[in-house]
Design goal:
- The structure is a homodimer.
- Chain A folds into 3 domains: about 45 residues, 434 Repressor (Amino-terminal Domain); about 140 residues, Response regulator (Rossmann fold); about 130 residues, Rossmann fold (3-Layer(aba) Sandwich), CATH 3.40.50.
- The two termini of chain A are about 35 Å apart.
- Chain A is built from 13 helices and 13 strands.
- The first copy, chain A, is α/β, with parallel strands linked by helices and about 350 residues long.
- In chain A, helix 1 packs across helix 2 and helix 10 packs across helix 11.
- The first copy, chain A, is elongated, with a radius of gyration of 26 Å.
- In chain A, the strands form 2 sheets. Chain A has a 6-stranded parallel β-sheet with strand order 3-2-4-5-6-12, with helices on both faces. A 6-stranded mixed β-sheet of chain A has the order 8-7-9-10-11-13, sandwiched between helices.
- Chains A and B meet through strand 1, helix 4, strand 2 and helix 8 of A and strand 1, helix 4, strand 2 and helix 8 of B.
- The first copy, chain A, binds a DNA duplex (30 and 30 nucleotides) through helix 2 and helix 4.
DNA sequence: TTTAATTACGGGTACGTTAACGAATATATA
DNA sequence: TATATATTCGTTAACGTACCCGTAATTAAA
């Protein structure tokens, strides 16, 4: 530990060199009006010369501003624990930046009720936040919500899934197509000639089906590109209860006896695993997401691979990006695709979500 | 943006409630002497009651202390670009925390010259830093260095490889055994009956051979545990030039014509890839690390899988841990194993090192 | 009892920045 | 020319914490 030498590059030094007061320096730093062209240029050149960087600590400390950010993500349901992870990321970010004068208001909606989503967006808009983090499950409603945000000049960051209307400060989430493509690549190592591949889409009517389709598209694209024997079967299941799923699955396994690989396009893979385990099928099972129930089946050896895209990070990074944009107007990557992680029984214990 | 409401939980408020000055509050906060037992307890109970958390911004700003951290890692050689990544992580951390009054001095050693390592450690000790980040390639020398650090009460963090003497503030790096175990798990999906697996260790006499052995041990353990047909061949190559490597490889491929899987236990896998490409062997190649040359061979389809453990993160996290420990005495995970990432042609573009 | 030493505490300035307020100067309007 | 209105700038008090320095009160030593 050493005594710190007095900073020779702060506003004070700039003011001294320019023969003005620090208030004037402050004005040009935030290019507010009230400074003559001459002195402004003089000060700018000195700033350049010293290549001055403001002290972020002092900046936040002195700023009497409070930033209020709102987050809107699905509530955690019995249906799926997926949204636990992004929420944890949000909470971590909250903890880290709250002492910087940031207040984070968390809003949730029910993925089964569009009205709940719309309702929450209204409440959020009324609260006039400075920035918004949004997981847009319902596309149409999200588009009109974000359109309003842009009108009101409220920056927003999307996570988990993107929107067609553009204009977000950033999208942080998966590249769905490529994650399907990667899964296919994995499968290509595992499938032998004559064996069949089953794609399983499980989603409710209300779900964002587009998600699954994109993954399937990527998956199929790989096999098309590599002229692999087209032995892909697909099943769409629009019920999410275990019974229905098992009914459909046993039916298709009777129709096709040579299925060796099963690719489930979302995190409901554990339900398929349940079926596979009970029916003692010898297949390779690939699915999505680092959920407790999925990991359990992976440890048992029923699920072979999980593809995962750091959902916790998505929440965390989303908020941090908003904060940095608003507080320091630092540049933000317009599209930040999460890495496509491959989990197996042997590396899942080391995974950081 | 809203005006911030005046903080009602700072030292000032505590002082007001306790009927003392903030200086006294400050004394008990840092439990310095000069406070009577009575007032100390009174203040402590108020701190408890308000569950006061110091404002880190103000704390760093007001502190006239400068923390000096030293980093000692291998210099970037033509031999391998591996150490580029940790260095980048170090530089990123530097950028982020230098405005918090942290000065980072970077030292480098030549992996071919033990003396250079020893020399640098001496220079570092003379500079009396407040903390050290170390990549301990030479075990014996590192042990005696870190022993001295402990004597001098200088906390140190190890990255990339651990030391037997313990006492580090934290180890941040791979679990070598498990990364080998994972690789074997992958291989188990890919190998067919009767096919041979070749383990390739390439390292110089001076290198930390222990690294490779640990991975090999994990790799073999998997096959032992799963009673897989023992068809593992192994070759140790103690020269790192392309010519020697190719000589040894072609010899072993002549001896064993049924090698279908090659597992290279470190980042020199690109040299093996070069051989495989030229000799047009049809094998699955697995190796380590996200290096340019490796990625190139992966894109070409010569290397099938790379195992990687976020070397950049290691440098970054190492410094951040040191900083947080020293500045805020926040708790640090004693062992932080990096995730074991699996890279293929199809997800490497999205990888964050 | 006087003096010295020790203990307990408060005042006040500094860290680098923000921004409210008001003063001074320049320019426009009558 | 007198007055109003912009324009340009400086003074100053915060933000929450650290810590130097001085002083009053208490205790110990003479």
């Amino acid at each position: 530990m050493k005594k710190r030498v007095t900073e020779l590059t702060g506003v004070k030094e700039i003011a001294r060199r320019a023969n003005v007061s620090i208030a004037t320096v402050d004005r040009v730093l935030h290019n507010r009006k009230g400074v003559s062209k001459q002195t402004k240029e003089k000060i700018l050149s000195i700033i350049e010369e010293l290549n001055y960087e403001p002290n972020l600590l002092a900046q936040r400390l002195a700023s009497r501003k409070t930033l209020r950010l709102a987050t809107l993500v699905p509530e955690i349901s019995k249906e799926t624990s997926f949204w636990e992870a992004p929420l944890k990321g949000i909470e971590q970010a909250d903890k880290e930046i709250k002492q910087f004068g940031i207040i984070i208001d968390k809003y949730f909606y029910d993925q089964n009720k569009i009205e709940s989503f719309v309702e929450q967006t209204k409440i959020i808009l009324e609260s006039k936040p400075d920035g918004i983090l949004l997981a847009p499950s319902f596309i149409e409603e999200s588009v009109s919500f974000t359109d309003k945000c842009r009108e009101l000049n409220i920056p927003y960051v999307l996570i988990d899934s993107d929107l067609p209307n553009g204009g977000s400060l950033s999208y942080i989430g998966p590249n769905l197509y490529h994650s399907g493509y990667l899964a296919a690549h994995l499968v290509s190592y595992l499938v032998k000639n004559g064996e069949k591949i089953l794609i399983v889409n499980i989603s409710r009517e209300i779900d964002n089906h587009h998600h699954l389709l994109k993954k399937e598209e990527g998956f199929r694209a790989y096999f098309n590109k590599h002229n692999m024997p087209d032995s892909i079967i697909k099943i769409d299941i629009r019920d999410t209860d275990l019974k229905s799923i098992e009914k459909y699955l046993s039916k298709i396994f009777i129709e096709h006896t040579d299925i060796k690989i099963v690719f489930v396009t979302n995190s409901r893979v554990s339900k398929v695993a349940h079926f596979i385990e009970n029916s003692k099928k010898d297949v390779i099972l690939i699915g999505y997401d680092f959920l407790k129930e999925n990991i359990m089946y992976m440890d048992k050896g029923i699920i072979d691979f999980l593809v995962c895209q750091k959902p916790k990070q998505q929440g965390y990074r989303g908020l941090i990006s908003l904060y940095q944009h608003l507080a320091f107007s630092s540049p933000v990557e317009k599209i930040y695709f999460m890495p496509i992680d491959i989990l197996t029984k042997e590396n899942s214990a080391f995974y950081r979500n």
